């Protein structure tokens, strides 16, 4: 029942009730029960006509005269879930209600109130119903504010962090956004401890299992809704509302079959969050889903057109013939050309490079360092294309990478052109960090003209900068070069290329392949001028697909039951047992040794894994599927989750 309704305690404080000199006789533990309606009755068999949550008013003139009848009357009211019983004295009961009635109400935790002065019931009814209507109007106003706030966020293209912050601000409750693998993408503790909120989050999240797309898990106190768009779910938004536990606290239940029985449990009528909170999480989820579909960037008109065309090829948002036509209008001929997709990105996502400090409010770049850094990289890529005398479309394709669709005259020019592009790019954009005395751009990068002279890679305090020497014209410049192509050092640039294709209709495949190779190669420390598909193995493939909802769904389908079991029984950790078994090629003896378990204990754990997963661990196909799921789980867990 929604807390938009007043409680019994609040009703007793109303003036019409106070005029009747109320006295609580029994059931003080139920004073915080919500009152859905007020019902006046003078008949003993009223319970079947009630729906629960009513505050029953009576003078008692029609109640049973015998003790058994009074116990049954109280029991029927408690069973149907009424909020309380108010008896006006003077007509049937003069000095007070019968003791047997008070005892029965106390046993069932039902608030029983005497009105010691005559009071018109209609005034009580009007006052309570006015309170309910006023609360509902307040709820309506709050709902209107929610719609207005999230509409503004949608129009402004707010990021996930801002959407979650606004949801927490409007609700006053902690809010968490997670992906399908239970990784936290954004959160706001609403003034509570973030450490406590996120401690062992994955295990805690797996215990939250609402029944429906938007539902409240009363056992754990979380309101949950699924986040997704265009039929693709990619996360969950959770709002902690422990109202059920608060309302249920202290409500005692007595065994109705025993006179003077002891408490046997807690009587909690169905409790759900206010309607406005359900609307809030659903509107927030819609805003998050919409924001994921929107990309905002401040670029020049020509660069915007390049980006529009590249995006059209990736998303199939424009016919291929129209893309070719608009590209030709820009001076980029894509018909009858050998096309190669290329992606350029930094090995590290933070503007300072891998291991460098991330921008904050004290950093000169501030929150705009990332976009400025990406625009700088896009400019460098365009300059490298011009220097290498290559033509093609180039633009940022996501928050960290710049894509290029090279248009070559013939397939034989592919390797030579890629080498020339990589060389020109690293000459245009050296990937060493700036010196302390070198003027930096707002994104933490230096322009080529501001690079130090040979030998100037040290800071004034004599300490070397991370990432190796700054490349100049001397020996330092030749560092990290192979066959005339500059190599990325540490947190430098990374160039990845897809397979060449003969037509524009196949260009998307080459671009997607290049982006996947670039994502996977971030974990590869080899110094390669250009990364190609043969350099990426299964682990790399799973790494580059780590944010794909279908892969996360596969992991949940294969391992979800086992992960849930480990969350409930953390001492067992059957996932480690399964990992040892698969990594040892299903050799049970070797796996038992690797897991530091005796053979009987290891065999017993394998039997439990079989039961939990309902799988045949002697099946090569089943074990292969589980092993791939484990590798995918490692890729998901070892990379910071990011909404995109």
From TrEMBL:
Residues 10-132 form the Purine catabolism PurC-like domain. Residues 428-446 have a biased composition (Basic and acidic residues). Residues 574-632 form the PucR C-terminal helix-turn-helix domain. It comes from Micromonospora reichwaldensis. Residues 348-372, 428-491 are annotated as: Disordered. This is PucR family transcriptional regulator ligand-binding domain-containing protein. It holds the Pfam family PucR.
């Amino acid at each position: 029942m929604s807390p938009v309704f007043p409680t019994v305690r609040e009703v007793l404080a109303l003036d019409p009730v106070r005029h009747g000199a109320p006295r609580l006789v029994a059931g003080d533990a139920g004073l915080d029960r919500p009152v859905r309606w007020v019902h006046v009755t003078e008949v003993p068999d009223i319970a079947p006509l009630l729906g629960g949550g009513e505050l029953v008013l009576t003078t008692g003139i029609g109640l049973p005269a015998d003790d058994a009848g009074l116990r049954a009357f109280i029991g029927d009211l408690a069973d149907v879930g009424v909020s309380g019983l108010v008896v006006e004295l003077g007509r049937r009961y003069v000095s007070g209600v019968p003791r047997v009635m008070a005892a029965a109400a106390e046993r069932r935790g039902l608030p029983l109130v005497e009105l010691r002065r005559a009071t018109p019931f209609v005034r009580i009814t009007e006052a309570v119903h006015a309170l309910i209507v006023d609360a509902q109007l307040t709820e309506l106003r709050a709902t209107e504010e929610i719609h207005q706030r999230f509409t503004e966020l949608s129009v402004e293209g707010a990021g996930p962090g801002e959407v979650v912050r606004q949801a927490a601000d409007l609700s006053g409750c902690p809010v968490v956004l997670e992906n399908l693998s239970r990784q936290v993408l954004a959160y706001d503790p609403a003034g509570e401890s973030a450490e406590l909120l996120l401690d062992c989050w994955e295990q805690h999240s797996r215990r939250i299992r609402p029944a429906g797309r938007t539902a409240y898990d009363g056992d754990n106190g979380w309101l949950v809704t699924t986040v997704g768009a265009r039929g693709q779910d990619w996360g969950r938004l959770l709002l902690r509302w422990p109202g059920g536990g608060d309302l249920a606290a202290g409500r005692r239940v007595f065994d109705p079959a025993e006179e003077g029985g002891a408490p046997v449990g807690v009587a909690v009528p169905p409790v759900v969050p206010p309607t406005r909170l359900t609307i809030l999480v659903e509107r927030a989820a819609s805003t998050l889903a919409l924001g994921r579909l929107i990309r905002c960037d401040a670029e020049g008109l020509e660069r915007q057109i390049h980006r529009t065309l590249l995006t059209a090829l990736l998303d199939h948002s424009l016919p291929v013939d129209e893309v070719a036509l608009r590209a030709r209008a820009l001076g980029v001929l894509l018909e009858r050309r050998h096309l190669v997709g290329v992606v350029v990105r930094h090995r590290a996502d933070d503007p300072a490079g891998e291991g460098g400090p991330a921008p904050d409010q004290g950093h000169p770049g501030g929150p705009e360092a990332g976009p400025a850094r990406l625009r700088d990289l896009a400019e460098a890529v365009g300059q490298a294309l011009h220097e290498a005398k290559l033509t093609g479309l180039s633009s940022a394709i996501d928050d960290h990478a710049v894509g290029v669709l090279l248009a070559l005259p013939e397939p034989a020019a592919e390797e030579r052109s890629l080498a020339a592009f990589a060389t020109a790019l690293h000459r245009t954009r050296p990937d060493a960090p700036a010196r302390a005395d070198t003027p930096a751009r707002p994104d933490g990068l230096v322009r080529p003209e501001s690079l130090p002279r040979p030998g100037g890679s040290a800071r004034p305090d004599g300490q070397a900068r991370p990432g190796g020497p700054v490349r100049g014209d001397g020996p330092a410049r030749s560092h990290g070069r192979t066959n005339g192509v500059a190599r990325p050092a540490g947190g430098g640039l990374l160039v990845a290329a897809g397979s060449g294709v003969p037509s524009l209709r196949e260009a998307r495949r080459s671009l997607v392949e290049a982006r996947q190779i670039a994502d996977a190669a971030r974990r590869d420390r080899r110094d390669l001028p250009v990364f190609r598909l043969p350099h990426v193995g299964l682990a790399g493939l799973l790494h580059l697909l780590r944010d794909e909802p279908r892969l996360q769904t596969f992991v949940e389908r294969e391992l979800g039951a086992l992960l849930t079991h480990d969350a409930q029984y953390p001492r067992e950790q059957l996932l480690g047992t399964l990992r040892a078994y698969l990594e040892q090629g299903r050799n049970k003896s070797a796996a038992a040794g690797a897991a530091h378990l005796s053979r009987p204990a290891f065999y017993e754990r394998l039997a439990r894994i079989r039961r939990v997963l309902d799988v045949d661990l002697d099946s090569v196909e089943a074990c292969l599927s589980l092993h791939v799921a484990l590798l995918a789980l490692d890729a998901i867990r070892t990379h910071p989750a990011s909404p995109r």
